[in-house]
Amino acid sequence: MSRGMRLASTWAASFAVATLLSGTGSGEQEKKEGQEKPEGKALADSILSQWKRKNPERVSDWMAEEKERHTIQPPADNSDLLKGGEQSIGNVYGQYTEKDVLMWARETEKLVVEGSRIFHDAGALGSTVSVSCDMCHPHAANTHPETYPKFQVQMGRVALLRDMINWCVEQPVRGTRFEPDDERMRALEAYIYAQRRGKNLDYGKH
Amino acid sequence: MRPKHKSVETRYMEERQEFFHSLKGLDRRSFMKVSAAAFGAAATRGLVPPTSFQPVRLSAGQGASAAEIHIAYISDSHLYEKDVNDRFVRSLLRAVDDVNQLDPQPDFVLYGGDLAQLGQSKELDLGAQILKELKAPVRMMVGEHDWYLDLGEKWKSLFGQPTYSWDHKGVHFVTLLSVVEKDFWTARGMSPMERMKTVAGLDNGVQSPFTVGAEQRRWLENDLARYSDDTPLVVFSHSPLYKLYKFWNFWTDDAEEVQAILRRFRNTVVIHGHTHQMLTNRIGNIHFHGMLATSWPWPYAPEGIPALTIQMSRPDPFNPQDGCGDGEVRVHSDGLVDKIYNFWNRNPVTVAREYTVSWGKESVPARPNRPSY
Are B236 and B174 in contact (CB under 8 A)? Predict the structure, then answer.
């Protein structure tokens, strides 16, 4: 699924949510979270299902599919933040809801899963020789992102993880190097860091 | 026209070849002299391995019986068509050259499986064509990359049945198809290429674990029935016939059942591909050895590495053939083997018969200088 398609599906979901919210009247202001008005929910569902019927190719759950193919480390669990503490009273910063925590996890994971998809796809990497990252680094093994920055003898300078990614993209993969803020570079970095979750940072290690 | 400038690789290979030539027919005393001379020469030039070739170990430890059978191996070439990617093609050609330069020639050459990357006719045809250049007889083994596009149709048309056995100089040899996967594709409506690409991803969790399967286990039992317990037995399988790391299929799901069939033999050796690295294990009387790949080295699994394994140094990513190579197996009269890892950019490493016999106490192979992360 291309980036454009994913953006479209995100947009459709936001549209459905917006419809849902506009369905709640002013008298409902004090209503607690999670108790949507039934007709609003029905309307949103019907709009979303219409959109799905019109765009069958965009409906596949690419994240679920990618996670089934390639084990991906989940992001940190932030549910502890919901417990609060006395100091949170009268303090706006740090007042999180379950929705916040869920949204952080899903958005973060989305970038990581997208990274996994690119990592395992020679086409997405722009390889001219059908080589993808996983051919040498299953589950991103032996990418050791925790050891950067370090002096990379073969480059004659200090390298960051992204320098090594670009080196691989140009050499074994025979593709075109990514700009540092290229979406693919961001996603690859996200996936590689995610796979080493729990490892201690040890910059400079050879 | 000969180029004036010789690359580091050319000089290295020339030195190496010259050295091997000079060793032919040497007794122990002269060998020590050559070793000392070569070491001295290297030292004066301020060279350290792997820049220059140095004799580290050549023969098995003292007390070993002379090798009776000499096998060369080439494994895991993962060929694409050469228009798609010629790097893996060049590596296989290099391995064929290595084996053809062995003097004397080996009794036979084992091809360890994964000749093709995506099991396509053109990939397998290309591989078959290159392997025809080998001077010694070739024994073929199949890997999952050869199999899952057409479930072995093309491979069998080129090389025959994947499961077979034969006797040679008193040793019984068996080749197995150890990459049988439970059908994961029909229910998902996968095309043959989707099935192939799923299996081709080492870390793809949609596929099933490798097995030898009930049918082949029955075949193996029947095949071995006529051999006495003291017959030396050597088994070739693509996957390791034990359980190392399930998530990369460094694993055979019915390993215990297969080992139960092999257990009664006094000495059994299993030589496997798939793992692309130095790997040594022993379970009871069964001694296991991995093979190097010509294509690329795999990292070591994050868990499950057998205690007897001396890991190979982490490969240099800036050197496309580092950690790759081919090798030899020298089978002694008792059926146990010296396993030689012939690294292309490093000194060769021998895992001697005495090493597994003594459970790792004697003839310990050279240890890595760059450990895994």
Answer: yes
